[in-house]
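Following the same procedure, the fold was encoded as tokens, giving this record:
***
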Amino acid sequence: MILSRYSIVSALFTCCLLVSCASEPLRRPAPSSGQSAGEAGVSNVPAKKYTRGNKSPYVVFGKTYEVMPTSLGYREIGIASWYGKKFHGRLTSNGEVYDMYKLTAAHKALPLPTIVRVTNLDNGKKVTVRVNDRGPFHDDRVIDLSYQTAVALGFADKGTAPVVIEALDELNFPEQFAEQEVSHKSWYLQIGAFSRKAGAEQLLAQIAAVIEDHSLEVQGQILQSELETGLLHKVWLGPMTSEARRDEIAELVKASNLGLPLKVEVE
């Protein structure tokens, strides 16, 4: 979504999670063959090519979704949720058995399977996971992670977390990137944080107007962080194509007296 005066995307909080995260999870079995939990998501990728789960378009709850033709270059910022015991042992969209103790994920549009890196913007923790399922079918969430992934990212005791998701092109297209070094750096700005969503929405609208007046293009949205005292609504801009563009946008925001942007670099 491109920021404009009339089109602004904000992450809307909903009290209802896709699955119940409050229930006590099953105990994690010991890793087999000396494999660590951090390796589980990528090392077990089957050699066969999947077609199941990639039908496009498809319809869920009366809404139509399109599967992306490729994951090449995919990068997105948004809200992640997680799913666990309720779906443990059921089939995923590409026909595998869902294991809440493996590093996997569900996405509405990425081709199955796709390997992505997910970074928790609240604490900087990151993990590589394999997308093998569809969901979450909530407008305000971009990815649904397995219970074990939520543990690795440090938010299994919460329902959601703000994240950056990036497809790992060198793993998804090994023949194409066999001899190339792929950079995963992306640049963002956090402009402000508010306990009330209305304050964040007002600031985002003001920034959108300034961005449009200067004929610039940048994504913007409101991300939520769950705190013990309640929700914190943060205004984020990005990803941006370069550090120089990030700095340009930051100076524009400061010159417009709209705040002191916090520069964030994700690798």
In short: The two ends are 22 Å apart (CA to CA). The CA atoms of residues 107 and 260 lie 34 Å apart.
